[in-house]
């Protein structure tokens, strides 16, 4: 009898322990009720830039999928550091997300004092799209090719290039171009891709490397002339525009990622849910078409792949920043 009672108690203990493990696992994987209020997608640059365009497309689709509002808030300033710093200090509950490009981690090599740590203060969710930079000029600039533009710059005819802020992919493309060809010009910073493109269209700073989504409409309207793209192959929406390699300037390839993060410590179940829903959104024909129309190529890099991208990218761009003596 004692042996039977002992066996029963032991079996009961195993069942209870198993049930506890199941309940714990369910708690880790089932973010019950999320989201039950609006979710802020914080963009650390001005409206109209590539990150802003991307964020608004994603926010609209997620609002439809979740039945809860996802909205964009722009917090420009200090080359994205202000907005990213605000996102880093937000509660880690999934209701504030950061949307940005490689600027978020490149800035760590530019600024001695940062309001956030790009690795420790954020949990990556996804890289959901990429886009190349495009070298554009105002129609008044006589150059029709990259080589003609280089000749004009070397002759001292044009000495200013616009750029959307320190640490941004267009700035890195600009400095790589400058360093590779040993050119002498000044970069003029703006508060984001939108204001920068407006300045180029107005002819104030008539040359720039721009993220393609920020400039595609103006190129189609003839307000800007595209000389080359920084992708490895030509872009479908600009089939007549050569790559930088085709234009005779090799080694300039760069495609800017559009990333989404949550503050560090956000429950893994929420990170996983957001990854799956964003990946689902960018896989829809509707969103693929909208993204492609302005120069984005959709992607779905996992949180682990994003973390690896950051680890490999940081030293690469840090070297360029040192070699080109880039200062914020």
Oligomerization status of the protein chains: single chain
Shape call = globular
Question: What's the story with the biggest beta sheet?
Answer: 8 strands, mixed
* Helix-strand string: HEHEHEHEHEHEHEHEEHHEH
**Overall number of structural domains:** 2
> What percent of residues are in strands?
15-25%
Q: Supply Rg.
A: 24 Å
In total, the number of strands is: 10
Low-confidence segments, given as residue ranges, are: 1-30
**How far apart are the termini?**
81 Å
- Look at the structure and give the CATH class of the largest domain: Alpha Beta
CATH superfamily of the largest domain: Bordetella uptake gene, domain 1
Estimated helix fraction: 40-55%
Mean pLDDT: 89
CATH-level-2 architecture of the largest domain: 3-Layer(aba) Sandwich
Structural class: alpha/beta
Number of DSSP helical runs: 11
**Could you name the CATH topology of the largest domain?**
D-Maltodextrin-Binding Protein, domain 2
Task: Describe, in plain words, how this protein is organized in 3D.
The protein has 328 residues and is α/β, with parallel strands linked by helices. It folds into 2 domains: 39-130 and 256-323, 3-Layer(aba) Sandwich (D-Maltodextrin-Binding Protein, domain 2), CATH 3.40.190.150; 132-229, Periplasmic binding protein-like II (D-Maltodextrin-Binding Protein, domain 2, 3-Layer(aba) Sandwich). The protein is 44% helix and 19% strand. It is built from 11 helices and 10 strands. Mean pLDDT is 89; it is low at 1-30.
């Amino acid at each position: 009898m004692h042996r039977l009672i002992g066996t029963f108690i032991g079996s009961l203990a195993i069942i209870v322990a198993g049930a506890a493990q199941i309940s714990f696992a369910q708690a880790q994987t089932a973010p019950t009720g999320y989201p039950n209020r609006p979710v802020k997608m914080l963009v650390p640059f001005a409206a109209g830039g590539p990150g802003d365009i991307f964020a608004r497309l994603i926010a609209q689709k997620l609002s439809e999928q979740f039945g809860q509002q996802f909205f964009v808030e722009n917090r420009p300033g200090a080359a994205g550091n202000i907005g990213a710093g605000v996102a880093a200090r937000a509660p880690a509950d999934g209701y504030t997300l950061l949307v940005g490009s490689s600027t978020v981690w490149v800035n760590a090599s530019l600024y001695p004092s940062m309001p956030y740590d790009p690795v420790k203060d954020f949990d990556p969710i996804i890289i959901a799209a990429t886009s190349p930079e495009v070298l554009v000029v105002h129609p008044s600039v006589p150059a029709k090719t990259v080589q003609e533009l280089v000749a004009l710059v070397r002759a001292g005819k044009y000495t200013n290039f616009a750029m959307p802020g320190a640490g941004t992919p267009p700035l890195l493309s600009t400095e790589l171009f400058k360093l590779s060809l040993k050119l002498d010009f000044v970069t003029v910073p703006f508060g984001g891709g939108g204001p920068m493109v407006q300045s180029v269209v107005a002819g104030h700073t008539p040359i720039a490397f721009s993220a393609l989504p920020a400039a595609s409409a103006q190129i189609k309207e003839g307000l800007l002339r595209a000389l080359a793209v920084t992708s490895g192959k030509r872009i479908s929406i600009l089939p007549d525009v050569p790559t930088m390699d085709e234009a005779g300037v090799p080694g300039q390839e760069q495609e800017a990622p559009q990333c989404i993060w949550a503050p560090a410590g956000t429950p893994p179940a929420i990170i996983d849910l957001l990854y799956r829903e964003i990946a689902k959104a960018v896989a829809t024909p509707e969103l693929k078409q909208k993204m492609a129309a302005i120069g984005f190529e959709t992607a779905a890099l996992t949180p682990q792949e994003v973390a690896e991208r950051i680890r490999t990218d940081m030293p690469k761009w840090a070297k360029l920043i040192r070699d080109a003596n880039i200062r914020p």
